[in-house]
Structures are given as C-alpha cells and as structure tokens.
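Check this:
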Amino acid sequence: MKITDLPRALAILGAIIIAVASALPWVYLQTPEGGFTRLGLQGDGLMTIIAAAVLLIGAVFSRSDGVKRFSLSGAILSLLIGIVFSVDLFQVLSFTPEADTTVRVGAGLILGPIGALISLVGCQMRCAPAVNPVDPA
C-alpha cells in the first residue's frame, strides 16, 4: 500500500467501525426484574449508521480531483458522528440509577467515537496539501 492510499483506507476503516458500532448494544440495564439491552439502532444509532454509509460511499468512490471536496465534508461528517456518540456516552455515564439497578456502557458507545476519530484523521490527511520534497542539490 502506498502512503497516498493510507488516508482513504483510514476513512473507510473508520466508517466501517462506525457502522458496526451503530448496530451493537449501547446500554445495559440490570434491575431486580431482569436485564435490558438498548441497541444503537433503537435510538441515535440509526442516524449514525446512515451517516457512516454516506461516509463510506464518499471514501470509496471519491475521485482524485475531488479529494479536497470529499475530505472536508467527510471530516465534518466524522466530527458530527463523534459528537453524537460522545453525547450519548456521557448521558449514560452521568445516569444515576436507583437502588439495585446497574447501568453499563455497551460496546457500541465505546467503538463509535474510536471509529469517528479514525475516519476524521483519514479525512484530514486527505485535506492536507501535498508536501514536495526539497532537493538538497
């Protein structure tokens, strides 16, 4: 793999991680009556999986002359996805359960911000101007 392919690969990898995280459980709730699981697709995960699909399509099918256009919109989309995951994560962490109730963060809320960060880095690397090596001669 060439170094020029790395930003695209990071954007694709991040979008795939976001899509998988959107479908995973986001919250586990254990009460005396039993346990409950809230999947990402039962809430904000539907929005993030659609955004991940748009991000993936843009990363796979972007042309070389439209690199900066996709990279900027991809970076903004990655940032918005990361904000959605982070807000939901902090809402779960700040929840104060009643006695005999346990609330745990699911794998989706852990993987989501990681995927958004990877995708953001990939898109930002594509936005960066190419550096021409200086000839010492």
Summary: The first strand starts at residue 25 and ends at 31. The mean pLDDT is 85.
